[in-house]
């Protein structure tokens, strides 16, 4: 599904990615670990089309992301990619349902269909009692589960998660990790997850270890 060839990225004179190759198949859960500053988030942002590489290729199925213009890339991102960040990034003025709906509306899908899917997703994630709550009226775990529902609203090919449980206590973290693997077994959902959480890293099918801008090791479980 995702093929990456020889990606390089510099910030000024700092070489952050030094030739990354990887490939990720549909339904795989891949974790990326490594010391702070190794380049994990930079790689995830490039894979997720939030940033561009200086050179190299990012292919989603047969589409070369590097060759797309900004508008096509934004459309592709909205339709096919989901994101979950360490901090939920929900809009504070909107309810849980509205936050989840937003990427669906941006994709131009019918309002009724999007709202129904948002409610289904929130119900699946045990948030049926929180539809009309704003982020400040929900717990950290509930906010992060709402962010998962938002990531799923357009049925993305792949979800990129950057330290998704970094801000959660161990019980909520465990619950979130279980959700990822449930989504994989029920919907064949693909995930690439940057994490410092050892439990999550080792639950993945494969773990890529990054050091100084390179993948130095791959562990298979
Ligand atoms: N926009 C930017 N401008 C300049 N330097 C950057 C930028 N983004 C990242 N860097 C630098 O690139 C290097 C890699 O950063 P990155 O966030 O990818 O590391 P990381 O492995 O995700 O670290 P962490 O585990 O701490 O999140 C760091 O030295 C960082 O300071």
From TrEMBL:
Family annotation (Pfam families): ABC_tran
This protein's UniProt keywords: ATP-binding, Cell membrane, Lipoprotein, Membrane, Nucleotide-binding, Translocase, Transport
Single biological process term from Gene Ontology: protein localization to outer membrane
Domain of life per record: Bacteria
GO MF annotation: an example: ATP hydrolysis activity
Classification via InterPro entries: AAA+_ATPase (IPR003593), ABC_transporter-like_ATP-bd (IPR003439), MacB-like_ATP-bd (IPR017911), P-loop_NTPase (IPR027417)
UniProt domain ABC transporter: residue ranges: 2-221
Keyword field contains Transport: yes
Annotated family: Belongs to the ABC transporter superfamily.
Designated name of the protein: Lipoprotein ABC transporter ATP-binding protein
Organism of derivation: Pontibacter korlensis
